[in-house]
Amino acid sequence: MVDVVTKAVIERPRAEVAAYAADPANAPEWYVNIDSAQWQSEPILREGSRIAFSAKFLGRALSYVYEVVDFVPLERLVMRTAEGPFPMQTTYNWEDSGPAATLMVLRNNGEPRGFSRLMAPLVGRSMGKANTADLRNLKKLLESR
Predict the structure, then answer these.
(1) What is the mean pLDDT of each successive set of 10 residues along the chain, which is 145 residues long?
(2) What global pTM score does this model have?
(3) Backbone dihedral region for residue 136 (phi beyond 0: left; psi -120 to 50: alpha; all else: beta)
């Protein structure tokens, strides 16, 4: 089992942080491993929306499709792999953290299968490092506006 939780306080209002982070078009700008994101459904974020991502992780090129399974604007976004190398769920939570600051919590959890199962500890550590860098990038991008 892989379960990685990363948090950051971003000195921007929750509406701004949530809108930017939830927009798949912005993912390549702040995710260190994501190269591209393309809608496979109508480009409106809601339950059932599907987005195809191309990424690099642990030296490998990956392609996977996430399906939105829960979306509460300004509060939570939950996506699960519909297609990809192993089942993964990504959750974004946003909470106020002061008058114009947001606590963003990024969680990735899943159950690797087959050979990937043996690599779960390495995957978890690498994912934790990447998620920390991702939130650092997001914080820097949004706070510099």
Answers:
(1) 95 98 98 96 97 87 94 98 87 96 96 62 82 98 96
(2) 0.92
(3) alpha
